[in-house]
Design brief:
This is ABC transporter permease. InterPro entries: ABC_transp_permease (IPR001851). It comes from Oceanithermus profundus. The chain has a domain of 212 residues. It has a two-stranded antiparallel ribbon with strand order 1-2. The protein is mainly alpha-helical. The protein is 74% helix and 1% strand. The chain contains 13 helices and two strands. A hairpin with a 2-residue loop joins strand 1 and strand 2.
Length: 327
């Protein structure tokens, strides 16, 4: 009796390397394809003015996405970042209306956001509660605090620095874009060139191996949760300047876009893979897609549907890629 044997060709190491590189650069090819498509169907898409619009549209997401990148690299998730951004903006406006001297309202806002992030970190790293559960609860806490401070009202007295950074320009470039670029740059330098950055990757790739190597993984996870909260707080403080007011729901809807942009760029939901360059690509994909759909006059409801489908495809690809790596 003959036994069946598998005569199918085995992938060579060179072929595996090619597939790995193809997956790694898939977001870049996606971005280039979108740019090519919209440049063909819209005469104004490639203009400098439109490029500036895209950068301005993704600037707040970039600030928030920097912290989310740190969190995802440790195989955690933070569902409270957009609510923390709202809360930080409310705190800054609340204390400005209360005549607290500048820049203390902004300092108070960032400290408040950082404190909530620390609670997220302690709950996740020290108490062992899954990060999605801790941060889901924190989103309700932050939202409740925003409603309590505002009593449901809109606050129009804002810190002068928030107004400058949110809507001001220098040499024709919006301060908001500059703040976003600096935030991304600092995040990249920390991840790429510091010991803490290496610990972030090690913690996400294999917590047990990281601990055996002497890494305090609980401390790293707590730290990235604080970083995620601080960047969310910065987005909120700057964002109210762009909006011209602080409301109890100002940035609540940014959560999916912020996490989606990071994942679109190729940062893994399972930790250890990705970084700020990938986040930048993801931000540009989302910005180009949204802007391009507006340029070609796609129906608003269809625009939301298309964006959702692309985000879902990115998540599926992320999970499949992680599964193949483990295999």
């Amino acid at each position: 009796m003959s036994t069946p044997n598998d005569d199918s060709p085995k992938p060579t190491p060179r072929w595996r390397a090619f597939l790995a590189k193809s997956r790694e650069f898939a977001p870049v090819w996606t971005l280039l394809a979108l740019i090519l498509f919209f440049s063909v169907y819209s005469d104004s898409f490639l203009s400098l003015e439109n490029a500036a619009n895209i950068l301005n549209q993704v600037a707040l997401l970039a600030i928030m996405g920097t912290g989310i990148t740190f969190v995802l690299l440790t195989a955690q998730i933070d569902l409270s970042v957009s609510y923390m951004a709202t809360f930080a903006g409310v705190v800054a406006a609340y204390y400005t209306a209360g005549h607290l001297p500048q820049p203390w309202p902004i300092v108070a806002a960032l400290l408040a956001a950082g404190a909530l992030g620390w609670i997220n970190g302690v709950g996740t790293a020290r108490l062992g509660i899954p990060s999605f559960m801790v941060t889901l609860a924190m989103s309700l806490i932050a939202s409740g605090l925003s409603l309590y401070l505002t009593r449901g009202r809109i606050l129009f007295e804002l810190p002068a620095l928030s107004e400058t950074l949110g809507s001001g320009r220098i040499f024709g470039v919006k301060w908001l874009v500059i703040v976003a670029a600096l935030t991304l740059l600092v995040g990249h330098l920390v991840l790429k060139y510091t010991r803490f950055g290496r610990y972030v990757y090690m913690t996400g790739a294999s917590p047990k191996a990281a601990e055996l190597a002497g890494v305090n993984t609980k401390g790293v996870i707590t730290a990235v949760m604080v970083i995620g909260a601080l960047t969310a707080g910065l987005a909120g403080v700057v964002g109210i300047g762009r909006l011209g007011s602080a409301t109890p729901t100002a940035f609540d809807g940014m959560l999916i876009d912020a996490i989606g942009a990071v994942v679109l760029g190729g940062t893994s939901l399972f930790g250890g893979v990705g970084g700020i360059p990938q986040t930048i690509v993801g931000l540009l994909i989302l910005g180009v897609l949204r802007n391009g759909l507006d340029q070609v006059s796609v129906d608003i409801y269809m625009k939301t549907l298309i964006t959702g489908i692309i985000l879902l495809a990115a998540l599926v690809f992320n999970i499949l890629f992680a599964g193949r790596k483990e295999a």
